């Protein structure tokens, strides 16, 4: 049942994050399995988003280690060797806590979405997806100079970027709205677009902060399919924060539960759902018809 | 027949050239919990915002307690006893939790401030733990609790909640719906809420409206709507 | 009956609101305007009371505010009220200046103002009708884009013909003023506006010290040419590069700040450069400035009355207008270069990253965009274009001094960008024409002396007109002349993005 511990993609060791006197994350360790959908759940204010912000470089952790093995297997010994060497990366292995945010995205290839959707509202849907391919396009334009003189190789790269964006737009059923401003889309569409934008940055790990918030059950079901297809056909691992149990219990392979910054449960979805500590702190005791609904996989 | 507390008649709202609401009729009777459900983009939040005059209705009329508030300034509407927990939370990020709650109480002259503050802390113990933290440092779900508590602090005659369950843990969602039901039963608080979580909302509400493409397509008692197959198919069940 | 009460209540509310605004205006103008110290016949300072000014200010605000808040927003009523505000203004200006004004004269002026407003409104009506249909008909959008293209082409053609046309129409003497004061002067600001537009409009970095880079460019040419005798054509690129380097140098520490803090620090840096220019007198000659800067040559051929001069070489009769016309085409070319570079960059990853930065910096970082470098390139490029413009300024004036690079200069350039609509090239150009052309035009309004008397100098009211333009914009077009944004890439239709969605940037 603990297959995520074999050659994990991301290993979080003793992560702590303090803000002044406030301890938001307290000595947290868990692994994100390669090719898994890992859910991070817990009560409001348990520190889930803080963990995300540490993984994606928006916060510098107070203490702890975040080792990401982009490909292949990283033995604990390799990670320890890199830690001692004082460097940020060695081959495919990265120590995220030592890297600035934009390099975590561009080099370690971790992409994310935000709880309160952060699209480029005044840019079109297509532009949003093209901006996400910034670093690849920047190289193709020879750091702008090649593009400025109209190098044909840049035009080819841009056409490929548009092609990729178009593919994603048809996958999220937004192709018709490619030339409309992102800010004009309805909420559910904006959520999907943000996921597509993160995917256009070519991640190995996609971190989603409450992707189903504000979605109705039908949209949540569509989201499930999208996330499963990202794992299956794009081979991207997912780490998600979510309160919608219909999403968490249906699609995740591995659930980590936080409360007050500490891990209170860690295991497969079925295992975690039965955990008395999780029921007490987070899920609550369901009343009759609700229990029935949760058992059926519908929203709580 | 009592007069409705809030009444919208033929309300149209535009964003530029786009007609977001196409003639909405809604009544909220005193002491009622009324829910509005609908897909994303149907215009639910626009209904909420239009009641508060931002954006203004381009046609139709809105009355609150018999007074025409269609053209009234937003702050004046709030003074009449309407409180809103808006979409996107909008807590005062640089003010402490306590100060945020104080701002909520300011509308009614803060006479019951101390008493109400204790009440809010009893409902949301998490806010008490965070009382002196800045609003902006709270987690998303905590901000949601704060926004609802801030709205309640004004002792509103009509409480308007835009997706109160958004981003909240299952336990807290249950808690909030219980609190709303309790306030309604004991103090006769009138509530108008917009929800994506149709199941909870319909179970809670006395009456509900279904909004489709900026117009009311169905209305009825919450439990009746919950039983209708078309509602179940469209808003309660996932999949196709 | 709430329905029946509505219009009346609306009018009452508008009256109340306007009354409140008038009170505020009266209270604000009281300490500044009501009392003035003047010398009497015995050369003693006495207090003069100017209550009529206060009343006038309050009345103007009252009527103006009423016009903006008029219920129903009837166009005719609005313009009638604005005309009335203009009459009140004109009356009090003339009264306060102790000018014997015939009452009909201000009235005529008011009618002119009102009519101009009407005309503007009437002209804009078809455009707004078109924009209403735009949402529905994509074909019309393409048509509008084509029309905008036509407008651009016509504008460019007019600019190219302008100096020759002026020369043909008015002769060498008469055309000098038009080509120099209007043509060159405006084009300098168009170029500066376009340069700053990269920083403020695209990248969303509020820079209040832009004039510093203009100064760096001007002094680069001034000093290199007077000290080492380097030619303008060598110094021009150097000035751009040098200013860009300064942009990077100042940008590195500054660009970590955001929003208001960035604005204040850039303002400070702008002043520091000016103060250094004043005090490092060994190098810059301080307040006195650098004079006798070599004039521009026709790629090496000087504009002099000599056999080796431009006129003789090309078989023309010598006239100083040749140089002016050459300067006109030079600044036109420089401005167009700025424009072309900006338009091109907008379609490259770097330009899209600038705009993305303006929209949401945090999202940019999450996509692997190095925000510090991206900001620096915008800052440096904007500075570089200011450097080009500065070198041009120096060669045109053949004199530079710190006087020319004060804060109001930065403010004017920023105002052009803001009025034009942040990010829009066409809008910025239009704003530069209106603002700089308008200020020059004030010098021409001699006929106003017949209305207000000989003591009236319209040029002294520049700032008033400037402020009026700003207030008018705030009311009608809070996002600038061109508030929409053209997407940098499209799949099927290039549809403008409404200004409502576009961010303004927080630094």
Tally of helical runs of chain C: 18
Query: How would you classify the helix and strand content of chain B by structural class?
Result: alpha/beta
> How many structural domains in the coordinates of chain C?
2
Q: What percent strand of chain B?
A: 25-35%
Q: What form of chain B results from the Cα inertia axes?
A: globular
Give the rounded overall mean pLDDT of chain B. Answer: 88
Structural class of chain C: mainly alpha
Q: What share of residues of chain B is helical?
A: 25-40%
User: Uncertain spans of chain C, ≥5 residues at pLDDT below 50?
Assistant: 1-7, 99-106, 118-138
What's the quaternary structure here? heterotrimer
Q: Which runs of chain B of at least 5 residues are low in confidence (pLDDT < 50)? A: none
Distance between the termini of chain B: 42 Å
What is the CA-CA span between the terminal residues of chain C? Answer: 51 Å
- Assess the beta-strand content of chain C as a share of residues: under 5%
What integer value in Å does the Rg of chain B equal?
Answer: 17 Å
Name the helix and strand elements of chain C from N-terminus to C-terminus, one letter apiece. HEEHHHHHHHHEEEHHHHHEHHHH
Describe this structure in words.
- The complex is a heterotrimer of chains A (300), B (240) and C (507).
- Chain A has 300 residues and is of the alpha/beta class.
- Chain A has helices spanning 48-55, 76-85, 101-106, 125-131, 134-140, 145-148, 152-171, 187-200, 217-234, 245-251, 269-274, 276-283, 288-295, and strands at 10-19, 22-32, 37-41, 63-69, 89-90, 93-95, 110-112, 205-209, 237-241, 254-259, 262-267.
- Chain A has a six-stranded mixed sheet with strand order 7-8-9-3-10-11, with helices on both faces.
- Chain B contains ten helices and ten strands.
- Chain B has helices at residues 44-51, 74-79, 97-106, 113-123, 125-129, 140-153, 170-187, 198-204, 222-227, 229-236, and strands at residues 6-15, 18-28, 33-38, 59-64, 67-68, 82-85, 158-162, 190-195, 207-212, 215-221.
- In chain B, the strands form two sheets. In chain B, strands 6-7-8-3-9-10 form a six-stranded mixed sheet, sandwiched between helices. A four-stranded antiparallel sheet of chain B has the order 2-1-4-5, covered by helices on one side.
- The model of chain B has no long low-confidence stretch (mean pLDDT 88).
- Chain C folds into two domains: 9-128, no CATH class; 183-442, no CATH class.
- Chain C has helices at residues 2-34, 51-69, 75-96, 104-134, 138-202, 211-228, 232-254, 259-279, 281-284, 310-313, 321-346, 349-359, 361-366, 371-397, 407-420, 425-442, 448-452, 462-476; strands spanning 35-39, 45-49, 290-291, 297-298, 301-302, 399-400.
- In chain C, the strands form three sheets. In chain C, strands 1-2 form a two-stranded antiparallel ribbon.
- In chain C, a hairpin with a 5-residue loop joins strand 1 (35-39) and strand 2.
- The two termini of chain C are 51 Å apart.
- Chains in contact: A-B, A-C, B-C.
- Chains B and C meet through strand 5 of B and helix 1 of C.
């Amino acid at each position: 049942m603990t297959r995520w511990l074999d050659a994990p993609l991301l290993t979080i060791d003793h992560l702590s994050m303090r803000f002044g006197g406030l301890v938001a994350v307290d000595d947290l360790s868990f692994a994100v399995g390669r090719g898994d959908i890992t859910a991070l759940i817990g009560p409001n204010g348990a520190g889930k988003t803080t963990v995300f912000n540490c993984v994606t470089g928006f916060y510098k952790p107070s203490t702890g280690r975040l080792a990401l093995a982009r490909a292949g297997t990283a033995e604990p010994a390799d990670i320890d060797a890199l830690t001692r060497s004082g460097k940020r990366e060695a081959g495919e292995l990265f120590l995220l806590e030592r890297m600035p945010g934009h390099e975590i995205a561009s080099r370690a290839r971790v992409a994310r979405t935000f709880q309160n959707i952060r699209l480029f509202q005044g840019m079109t849907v297509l532009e949003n997806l093209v901006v996400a391919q910034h670093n690849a396009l920047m190289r193709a334009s020879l750091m702008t100079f090649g593009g400025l003189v109209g190098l044909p190789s840049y035009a080819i790269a841009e056409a490929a970027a548009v092609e990729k964006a178009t593919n994603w737009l048809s996958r999220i059923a937004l192709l018709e709205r490619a030339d409309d401003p992102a800010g004009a889309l309805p909420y559910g569409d904006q959520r999907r677009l943000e996921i597509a934008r993160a995917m256009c940055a070519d991640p190995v790990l996609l971190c989603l902060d409450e992707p189903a918030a504000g979605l109705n059950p039908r949209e949540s079901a569509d989201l499930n399919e999208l996330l499963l297809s990202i794992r299956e056909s794009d081979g991207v691992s997912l780490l998600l924060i979510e309160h919608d149990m219909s999403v968490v219990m249906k699609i995740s392979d591995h659930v980590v539960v936080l409360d007050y910054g500490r891990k209170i449960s860690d295991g497969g979805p079925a295992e975690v759902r039965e955990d008395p500590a999780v029921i007490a702190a987070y899920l609550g005791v369901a009343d009759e018809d609700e229990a029935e609904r949760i058992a059926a996989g519908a929203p709580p | 027949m009592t007069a409705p507390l809030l009444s919208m008649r033929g309300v149209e709202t535009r964003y530029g050239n786009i007609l977001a609401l196409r003639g909405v009729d809604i009544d909220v009777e005193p002491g009622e919990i009324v829910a509005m459900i609908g897909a994303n983009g149907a215009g639910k939040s626009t209904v909420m915002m239009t009641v508060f005059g931002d954006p203004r209705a381009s046609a139709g009329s809105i009355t609150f307690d018999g007074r025409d508030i269609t053209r009234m300034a937003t702050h004046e509407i709030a003074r009449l006893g309407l409180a809103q927990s808006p979409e996107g939370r909008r807590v005062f990020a640089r003010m402490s939790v306590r100060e945020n709650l104080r701002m909520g109480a300011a509308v009614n002259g803060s006479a019951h401030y101390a008493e109400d503050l204790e009440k809010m802390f009893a409902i949301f113990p998490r806010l008490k733990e965070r009382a002196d933290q800045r609003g902006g440092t709270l987690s998303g779900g905590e901000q949601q609790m704060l926004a609802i508590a801030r709205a309640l602090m004004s002792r509103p005659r009509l409480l308007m909640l835009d997706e109160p369950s958004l981003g909240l843990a299952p336990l807290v969602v249950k808690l909030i719906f219980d609190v709303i039901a309790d306030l309604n039963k004991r103090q006769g608080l009138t509530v108008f809420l917009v929800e994506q979580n149709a199941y909870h909302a319909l179970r809670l509400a006395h009456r509900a409206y279904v909004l489709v493409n900026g117009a009311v397509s169905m209305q009825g008692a919450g439990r009746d709507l919950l039983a209708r197959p078309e509602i179940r198919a469209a808003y309660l069940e996932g999949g196709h | 009956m709430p329905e029946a009460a509505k219009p009346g209540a609306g009018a009452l509310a508008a009256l109340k609101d306007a009354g409140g605004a008038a009170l505020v205006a009266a209270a604000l103008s009281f300490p500044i305007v009501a009392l003035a110290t003047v010398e009497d016949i015995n050369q003693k300072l006495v207090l003069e009371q100017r209550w009529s000014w206060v009343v006038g200010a309050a009345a103007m605000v009252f009527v103006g505010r009423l016009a903006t808040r008029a219920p129903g927003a009837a166009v005719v009523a609005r313009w009638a009220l604005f005309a009335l505000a203009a009459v009140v203004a004109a009356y009090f200006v003339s009264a306060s200046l102790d000018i014997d004004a015939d009452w009909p004269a201000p009235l005529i002026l008011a009618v002119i103002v009102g009519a101009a407003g009407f005309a503007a409104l009437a002209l804009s009506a078809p455009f707004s009708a078109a924009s209403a249909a735009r949402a529905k008909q994509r074909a019309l959008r393409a048509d509008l884009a084509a029309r905008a293209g036509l407008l651009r082409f016509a504008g460019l053609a007019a600019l190219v013909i302008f100096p020759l046309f002026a020369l043909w129409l008015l002769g060498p003497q008469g055309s000098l003023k038009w080509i120099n004061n209007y043509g060159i002067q405006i084009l300098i600001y168009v170029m500066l506006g376009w340069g700053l537009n990269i920083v403020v409009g695209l990248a969303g970095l509020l820079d209040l010290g832009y004039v510093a880079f203009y100064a760096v460019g001007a002094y680069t040419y001034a000093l290199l040419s007077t000290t080492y005798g380097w030619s303008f054509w060598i110094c021009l690129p150097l000035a751009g590069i040098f200013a860009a380097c300064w942009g990077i140098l100042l940008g590195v520490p500054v660009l970590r700040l955001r929003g208001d803090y960035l604005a204040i620090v850039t303002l400070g840096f702008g002043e520091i450069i000016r103060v250094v220019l004043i005090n490092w007198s060994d190098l810059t000659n301080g307040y006195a400035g650098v004079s006798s800067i070599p004039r521009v040559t026709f790629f090496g051929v000087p504009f002099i009355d000599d056999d080796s001069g431009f006129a003789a070489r090309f078989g023309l009769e010598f006239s100083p207008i040749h140089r002016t016309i050459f300067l006109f085409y030079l600044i036109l070319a420089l401005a167009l270069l700025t424009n072309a570079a900006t338009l091109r960059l907008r379609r490259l990853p770097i330009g899209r990253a600038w705009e993305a930065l303006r929209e949401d910096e945090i999202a940019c970082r999450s996509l692997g965009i190095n925000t510090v470098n991206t900001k620096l390139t915008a800052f440096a490029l904007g500075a570089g274009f200011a450097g080009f413009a500065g070198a041009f300024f120096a060669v045109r004036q053949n004199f530079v001094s710190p006087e020319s690079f004060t804060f109001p200069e930065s403010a004017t350039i920023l105002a052009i960008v803001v009025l034009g609509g942040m990010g829009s090239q066409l809008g910025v150009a239009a704003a530069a024409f209106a603002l700089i052309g308008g200020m020059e035009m004030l010098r021409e309004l001699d006929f106003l002396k017949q209305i207000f008397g000989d003591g009236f100098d319209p040029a002294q009211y520049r700032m008033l007109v400037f402020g009026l333009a700003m207030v008018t914009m705030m009311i009608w077009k809070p996002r600038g002349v061109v508030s929409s944004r053209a997407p940098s890439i499209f799949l099927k239709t290039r549809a403008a993005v409404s200004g409502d969605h576009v961010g303004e940037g927080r630094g």
